[in-house]
Each structure stands twice: as structure tokens, then as C-alpha cells.
Amino acid sequence: MRKLIHGIVDFRERLAPQYHETFAQLALGQKPDVLFVGCSDSRVVPNLFASTEPGDLFVIRNVGNLVAPCDAQGDEANIFDRSEAAAIEYAIEILAVADIVVCGHSECGATIALLDEKRQLSPNLKSWLRHGKAAVERLKSGEHLDPTLPLHNQLSQINVLQQIEHLRTYPVIQNAIAQKRLRLHAWYFNIGSAEVETFDPIAEKFMPIDRAMAERLLTAMGEDAFDQKRTGIVPWQYDVENKNQAINADSKTYGAHCCLVHNKKDV
Ligand SMILES: [Zn+2]
């Protein structure tokens, strides 16, 4: 805690003046491009590894970067975690994010716990981790993206793909994808190598996002390059112009502190 308090003073005295303009703008409203779903783990640092600025990421963090699914499409009574569902709906419907990243990581305590069937877990932790059970089943049934990894890290990678599937159970996400205004991305942060990897649907494994991969991703985002059925992940078929038009159409509702109210009225 001592380090945290010193850090606040350091920010106030040294960094805040540099960010004065940025935060003055952000006080008028936020328009992040990305919903980032990550683990609560202290070593997962998206602002650092993706070099993001304030206002860039809308973030959900929880133990295991899990997405509690809906068990019946369109029936909101069957969403298993209201706080997470609310954040997803807010990101899609109000902020109109264009991309969702689910980011797992190596040495994740959640996947280690999921693999240790004898381990006694506290009730809420045990209940929450059930959303990772489907990934465990995938691993047990022989899905191995990278057999060279320790088992818990293999599970972390499969778990990212599974949580993407859970995202797809949300009606708001199904609608956004159908309207080609949303892409889903599977990432994995290797803590030991400080490497961010993305699921490569051609190699069928996670690959580092180096300069060459970044170019591939960016090119594909504009060229519909990947096959949705093959990957199980919404590919980069997204029409950038659609998004730009949507932003222009909604521009009246952003930049105002009360954008939620405006958008609610619009809906
Ligand atoms: Zn974790």
C-alpha cells in the first residue's frame, strides 16, 4: 500500500501535468474501441503490454478471465453473472466498441485450480470457476493447441477460446456480429517472456503478435481473410466503413457526460 500511495503523489506531481489535456477531454466522455476481458492477476498489464492510453480500453477483469454465459439465447433471466453481463451490454450497446479481446495468461491460478480436482476451494471461488469447466473438458477430450506447454498453460489457452464461445451466447453480441460491427479476439499473455500472443486460426495455435503478425492481423481486418467456421472466432470480416458510419451517426451522443441517457432514449 505504501508503494501505491507514493505512486499517487508521483503521478500528481510528475505525470498529471502531462496528461492534463487528455483527462480534460476524457472528462467529456469516453469512446474506447475495445472491451478487454482479462484475469484479475496482477501480472496481466494490458495498459503496459499494449501501450494503451487512458480512454482506450473498457475493461472487465475477474478470476480466470471467464465469461459467464447465458444458458438460453435471448432469455436474460438465465445470465449467470449480472455485473459482467451489464459491462458487456454497456460496452456493446452504449460505447459501441468494435472489438472484444479475451486475454488469458500463463501461470494462471484459476486454471491451476481447475486442474486440481482435490483442491478445496471457498464456495464463491468454486462457483465462479465452473465457467471454466467446459475448457477443462476440451483439454481432457484431447484438444491440445501447444502440447509443449505445461498443462495449466494449455488450459489457459483453450479457456480463452471457450470464453469467446461464452461471449457468443449474449444476444447483444450476436446482434452486433450479425450487423458486422463487432469482432472477437483471443489473446494470451505469456508472463515469462512478456509476449502477447493471438490465436492463429491457420496454425491453430497462439502465435506472438510481432510486427509480421500485426501486419497480417491489420490486413485481414480489412480483407475478410479468415474463415469463421474454421476458427470458431469471428474473423476480421468487419467492414470498417460500417463502423465509421455508425460512429458518425452516434456522434451526437458522445462527448457528453450523459451519453448513457441519450443512448437509452435512442434504444
Ligand atoms: Zn489468471
Description of the structure:
By secondary structure, the chain is of the alpha/beta class. The chain has a single domain, classed as Carbonic anhydrase (Beta-carbonic Anhydrase, Chain A, 3-Layer(aba) Sandwich), CATH 3.40.1050. It has 13 helices and six strands. A six-stranded mixed beta sheet has the order 2-1-3-4-5-6. The longest helix is centred in the middle third of the chain and has 17 residues, at 151-167. It starts with a helix and ends with a helix. The relative contact order is 0.12. Bound molecules: zinc ion. Zinc ion (ZN) binds next to α5.
Number of strands: 6
Strand content: 5-15%
Q: The CATH topology is what?
A: Beta-carbonic Anhydrase, Chain A
Note the total helix count: 13
Going by helix content, strand content and strand pairing, the class is alpha/beta
The whole-number mean of residue pLDDT values reads 82
Tell me what the CATH architecture is. Answer: 3-Layer(aba) Sandwich
Low-confidence stretches: 223-267
Question: Ends: how far apart?
Answer: 43 Å
The helix content, as a percent range, equals 40-55%
Strand order of the largest sheet: 2-1-3-4-5-6
Output the radius of gyration: 19 Å
Ligand list: zinc ion
Largest sheet: 6 strands, mixed
Report the principal-axis shape: globular
Series of H and E elements: HHEHEHEHHHHHEEEHHHH
For the record, the CATH class is Alpha Beta
> What is the count of structural domains?
1
